Amino acid sequence: MRRPEVFYRLYERRLAGELDPERLPHHVGVLVDGNRRWARAFGATTQEGHQAGADRIIDFIGWCDEVGVPVVTLYMLSTENLARPAAELTPLLEIITTTTQRLAEPREDRAPVRVQPVGAVDLLPPRMAQQLRDVADRTRDNTGVHVNVAVGYGGRLEIVDAVRELLEEAAAEGRSAADVAAELTVDAISDRLYTRGQPDPDLVIRTSGEQRLSGFMTWQSAYSEFYFCEAMWPAFRRTDFLRALRDYGRRQRRFGS
Fold first, then answer.
1. Which of 89, 113, 138, 252 could form a disulfide with 144 if both were Cys (CB 3.0 to 4.6 A apart)?
2. Per-residue pLDDT tens for 215-233?
């Protein structure tokens, strides 16, 4: 091993040693941003950039398993992304589908992952939508990291879908819109989100230097801590992740104040 790599590993080990297990996030959301810009910087194709990003996702879930982060949400494809040119979108959808299947594969180095698609799956091509549902069904009882794959996802659409579900349930029960309005609570919306039953993200990470949420978990991230990293997603290292966790552990969280 070359000397710079030795120092790098020592620094990584020191970072890991600084983490307080009692102050780790239970749920980490990640905007996996920068695949295309990484590809341009290295003279690679857009598809190669997306594939490099997909490979990094596999690594990232392993890192989460190592440190004990039980829930991860990956923002992989927004509803707006569905309008991309077919020449880019088609191979990207294939990469995403393959990545979810790779996550579901048993591995000796971590517990079996549970994969759950979150988003408007019906907006996706039928074949992909069915493959995502199949992976979710196959991994439903797995005990490893719970990985939410946000595909065809939009934070505003998620809230609209939650309200729609609430109104449809009321109509089926013979209750009026006025009844719903009179009884409406925050929990009533939360219980109908794509991530219902899960903790809200404690930490949201965005790579590539951009400092905005782009509609990611609009409702759930109200009290999240945010960490913005300059590295493009394919270049995001375990060290970068450990730094984000260390930074999170040093913060004094305030909920609504």
1. 113
2. 999 999 999 999 999 999 9
Q: Indicate the burial class of 220 (C-beta count within 10 angstroms; 0-12, 13-18, 19 or more).
A: buried
Which residue type, as a one-letter code, is found at position 209?
A: G
Give the C-alpha distances (Å, rounded to integers) separating 215 from 83, 149, 152, 172, 222: 16, 15, 12, 31, 12
* Whether residue 142 lies in the annotated active site: no
What is the C-alpha separation between 71 and 198, in angstroms, rounded?
Answer: 8
pLDDT tens digits, one per residue of 74-113: 999 999 999 999 999 999 999 999 999 999 998 888 889 9
Determine contact, residues 225/248, Cβ cutoff 8 Å.
Answer: yes
- Point out the catalytic residue in the list 55, 81, 142, 161: 81
Q: State yes or no: is 109 an active-site residue.
A: no
Q: What is the pTM for the complete model shown?
A: 0.94
Taking residues 106-124, report their average pLDDT: 92
CATH homologous superfamily of 24-153+201-250: Decaprenyl diphosphate synthase-like (3.40.1180.10)
Query: Domains of the chain: which residue ranges?
Result: 24-153+201-250
